[in-house]
Design brief:
The protein is an alpha+beta fold. Helix content is 34%, strand content 21%. A 5-stranded antiparallel sheet has the order 1-2-5-6-7, covered by helices on one side.
Length: 252
């Protein structure tokens, strides 16, 4: 039994390290190289084989996401509606997000939520009145539900430095929120990428979400989600700075 337990631990550790190797490999492919086209950070799937394992990698430029500290009320409301939130609920929740992060105690003209609203709802805290420090903090905003948060989270960021997302890298709901024809835009982007006409990487923001999923021959699988910023790092020998890190393993 101890032998089997150790083997499981060893295999899980190996899968995790291969997943981490996938992040490092992705960063190497995001650099300009005259010998091969760079990867495009627009969410498409790349597959890589390493040490007998299959690694599925997706990269998204953070500039294509909605920054919950900088997006205005109208963009937030349109984004919520793009995810099928009814218009009235979207208006109230968008206002509550803005009220959470702004420094005043005045509710938005439509919707919103300040300290009195949280108290009336039985919440032992009020609006933070300061910027979001994590995406998960959004779950504390009045009106947010676990299901809705799960739908919003993949399209949100704290790291873009932009009030308006970059359509070059944005996904469908974000494009819809920006008033664009998402279906046509995504089809055009996919076709251009397949033809090698796009050379987007290297002109992006330099801050990327990377999902690396490693699958061993025995079926053991591990997933890693991280946000990294290219360039100088406080860690000696590292070519990027880690901003966010989540990992997990799946049993055989």
């Amino acid at each position: 039994i101890e032998h089997l337990q150790q083997r499981v631990q060893d295999d899980t550790g190996r899968a995790q390290e291969i997943g981490r190797a996938g992040v490092a490999y992705a960063m190497s492919r995001l650099r300009a190289d005259p010998l091969r086209p760079p990867w495009q950070p627009d969410g498409r799937l790349y597959r890589w084989s390493f040490d007998g394992a299959r690694v599925d990698i997706r990269v998204e430029d953070e500039s294509g996401k909605i920054n919950i500290n900088l997006a205005d009320l109208q963009l937030l409301q349109a984004f919520l509606q793009a995810l099928d939130v009814p218009a009235e609920q979207a208006a109230h929740l968008a206002g509550a997000i803005v009220d959470w992060r702004d420094a005043d105690d005045l509710s938005q003209p439509v919707g919103g939520a300040e300290d009195g609203d949280y108290a009336a709802a039985g919440r032992p805290y009020g609006a933070k009145d300061a910027p979001f420090e994590t995406i998960a903090e959004l779950e504390q905003v009045l009106g947010m539900t676990p299901d809705l948060y799960a739908r919003l989270e993949p399209f949100l960021t704290l790291y873009s430095g932009r009030g308006q997302p970059d359509a070059t890298y944005a996904q469908g709901p974000v494009l819809v929120a920006m008033g664009m024809d998402a279906t046509a835009w995504l089809a055009q982007r996919e076709a251009a990428g397949a033809a090698g006409a796009l050379q987007l990487v290297g002109t992006g923001s330099g801050t990327y979400s990377i999902e690396s999923r490693a699958r061993l021959a025995d079926g053991r699988e591990t997933s890693l989600r991280t946000v990294v910023r290219a360039g100088a790092s406080p860690v000696p020998g590292s070519a990027y700075t880690l901003l966010r890190w989540e990992e997990g393993a799946s049993p055989q």
